[in-house]
Design brief:
Layout lengths: L10 H23 L4 E5 L10 E5 L14 E2 L9 E4 L4 H4 L13 E8 L8 H16 L3 E6 L10 H9 L13 E8 L3 E8 L8 E4 L4 E5 L1 H9 L4 H8 L4
Helix pairs in contact: 1-5, 3-4
Length: about 250
Amino acid sequence: MPAHDWKRVNAGAFHHFHTCWVAELAKTLNDGVLPPDYYALAEQVAGGVIPDVLTLQTAAPGEDEPEPVGGLAVAVQPPKARFSATFEADIYAERSRTVVIRHTSGDRVIAMIEIVSPGNKATRHALDSFVDKAYAALKAGCHLLVIDLFPPGPRDPQGIHGALAEEFGEAGFELPADKPLALASYSAGELKRYYVEPLAVGDALPDMPLFLTADVYVPVPLEATYLAAWSAVPRRWQVEVEGRNA
């Protein structure tokens, strides 16, 4: 199923779909996508931020981070994305002390998935809050996957990834004019690396990497989970989103 034009409906209709998609993503991650020592929770509070999906590792605080048993190594199977690069941030600045994001369970927070909503772009404050949250998570070593199915606006002319790149001091990223939507995955190692796949309405959603370490990831099946969430959208809103008569 192609990505839909969610601008056709109100924020409430998208919120319903958003909620269903979050649940499907967490379920799918827990049904075998994540290695055995990892698990996903939907909409949890972690260190003052509320991610849509939180990936945790069942290791007690203070233990050395073990390598995942499972997952794909970047060196062996690099993620497929149209744009891939490293933020050229100051390495020494990256080594400064930061606040580590942890879940209240005590297990180690590894990664977050964020699905961008219209409200995240509605005002300058909302956009800045979203970008600040993503930037803080990456600086703290939390890997990130951002799903942005809304086109750029006056506050984010190159989408959420463009705004986040500017936060890292790297202006100049440009989305293709014919593909204004974007999926962006970030590895939060000492050097922050990103993988961005532009999309247009009508494109299928590719799998995107969710990093567990700086060099190991799992592919997240966005198309399958999107389809499952779409089936839970009331027909009245499916018709509206698809721009067809009832």
